[in-house]
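Lecture notes, unit on protein representations.

Consider one protein chain, 151 amino acids long.
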Amino acid sequence: MLLNFWRGFTAWRRGRPFWAGLFVAVGALLVLFPPFAGLKFGDLMISMQTLGGVSALLIGTLLGICAAALWTQPRFRLASGIVTVLLSLVAIVVTNFGGFIIGTISSLIGGALAVAWTDVPKKPDEPKEPNELQEPNEPNEPEPTQRVQPT
């Protein structure tokens, strides 16, 4: 039963930009986490609930939506990838350095993977066939060159 589940998951994963969505989801969590995490050092409570927190909520949510779109609607991968790259670049400026740079880098990698992903398998290179007018070169014979006369 576990083997059937794993085979089904592998088939599902190969039909969409899975790793791109995973990187974007991790980046979204890293952008969302710092403004809303209360850090406690002894009796000292550190909280960053400012305007950066509101923008982190907006940008993190939009990055999460892009990650979900990459997993559920792979045909929108180009639009999701471009929006992800733009949002992660904006996150550097407005949300505590975009999750302390790690969230931005993760989202940028995910956006780049989403833009580069394709579901069309790569065709193997076919060997070149010699022209009918040309004679095939012998393996030990050097490549013929043309001499150019100066003018």
